[in-house]
Amino acid sequence: MPGYGAVDGGCRMAGPADTDISGLIARAEEFIRLCCSENAVDRPPADRMAEIRHEIRQSGSYVHTARELAFGARVAWRNSSRCIGRLYWPSLVVRDLRHVRTAEGIHRECVEHLRLAYNGGRIRPVISVFAADGPDGAGPRIHNPQLIRYAGYRGPGGRITGDPATTDLTDRVRALGWPGGPGTRFDVLPLLVHTPTEPPRLFDLPPDAVREVPLRHPDHDWFAELGLRWYALPVISDMVLEIGGIRYGAAPFNGWYMGTEIGARNLVDQQRYDLLPEIADRMALDRSTDRTLWKDRALVELNVAVLWSFQQSGVTITDHHTESERFLRHLRREEKAGRTVPADWSWIVPPVSGGVTPVFHRYYDDHESSPAFLPPPATGRCPVTGHAPATGGVRNGPDPQPPVSVGANTGDSRDRIARP
């Protein structure tokens, strides 16, 4: 599909990869040792490191083998301290697309990613890795935070139609030539793709690649009248995949949704769709005081609607209780393998009924790890879901006692994307 035509300005390519030769060699050695320790090597580690050192000294960078790339991408997910859904990290499908260099080619492969990952509703975790940054500058970038996002149109008096989180991006793509959609609350934005050899270009997503779920409620017929829907597949597209000192700035990836991401954040946050007052009024709840718990009651019914609607549409989704138990299984599995699990309490605890989930009642050891998914500048979002922390990132645990590490013998050992 052709783009809208390239327009200069408005997008500045990010800086180059790690150009410090000794630092890059050290990062590469650390990664190759990790590959060796987990039997993810194609040749003797000493031989491979000799190749890498020579390549870095000659060119200022090095190229991962296909096996190294696949292993690094999966471990980056495993290391994502803000993601509760890591149990299935070994199942991540890695698409090596480093040879695709044009904006049109990147768009084409992103569309294929959406189709492959949707999988008839049985969502599978997929990452598509495009060319890496190099010593001379950045590689390609996808400027959308997710491949599928809804527009946010600014109106008179500060009124916003659609998703307030995307107003800046909506302004940007309209300045680059996008005419806008029908003007609903759920207009899908075009992709904004930038390569080192091309100015920013816009591409529409074909309708068959954008799978959406209309939201209904099993007990309230009026819920369908709200006209709500959400896209089935959360594909994070603006984060950087770092493996052994090499950075891949265009590496869209997905898991599947946990219901609260839609029903307690996207549709509920005051800076997003802010739907709780409307739902509470439909339920005839008393909103005169917070003591009636009208927010809580409306929130639960919205989450019931999200889970039920995805299930009725045959689209993979998980609930926060199930995912909390899976995270404990992930912790136990990793501890058995002799690995520590980085985890940020303020992100792992779900935004609904946190205190009745097992992930609430323990501490975690949060440490920087590599490979990793790195957020774009000035953001702090979950590497798989793209969300801010459920608690605002303020709290560090259920009480002020000193934290214990995940691997400690505490008697409570503990997996949209988004989430596998």
Automatic annotation (TrEMBL):
Gene3D superfamilies registered for this protein in UniProt: Nitric Oxide Synthase, Chain A, domain 1 (3.90.340.10), Nitric Oxide Synthase, Chain A, domain 3 (3.90.1230.10), Nitric Oxide Synthase,Heme Domain,Chain A domain 2 (3.90.440.10)
Pfam families assigned: NO_synthase
Ligand binding (heme): C83
Cofactor dependency: heme
PROSITE patterns (alphabetical): NOS
InterPro entries: Nitric_oxide_synthase_Oase-su, NOS, NOS_dom_1, NOS_dom_2, NOS_dom_3, NOS_N, NOS_N_sf
Protein keywords: Heme, Iron, Metal-binding, Oxidoreductase
Origin: domain of life: Bacteria
Main EC class the enzyme belongs to: oxidoreductase
Region (Disordered): 371-420
Enzyme Commission numbers on file: 1.14.14.47
MF terms in GO: heme binding; metal ion binding; nitric-oxide synthase activity
GO biological process: nitric oxide biosynthetic process
Entry keyword Metal-binding: yes
The keyword Acetylation appears for this protein: no
Limits of the Nitric oxide synthase (NOS) domain: 82-89
Transmembrane regions listed in the UniProt entry: none
Known catalytic reactions: 3 reduced [flavodoxin] + 2 L-arginine + 4 O2 = 3 oxidized [flavodoxin] + 2 L-citrulline + 2 nitric oxide + 4 H2O + 5 H(+)
Subunit note: Homodimer.
Note: This protein is similar to the oxygenase domain of eukaryotic nitric oxide synthases but lacks the reductase domain which, in eukaryotes, is responsible for transfer of electrons to the ferric heme during nitric oxide synthesis.
Function description: Catalyzes the production of nitric oxide.
PANTHER family linked to this entry: NITRIC OXIDE SYNTHASE, NITRIC OXIDE SYNTHASE OXYGENASE
Family from the record: Belongs to the NOS family. Bacterial NOS oxygenase subfamily.
This protein's name: Nitric oxide synthase oxygenase
Native organism taxonomy: Bacteria, Bacillati, Actinomycetota, Actinomycetes, Kitasatosporales
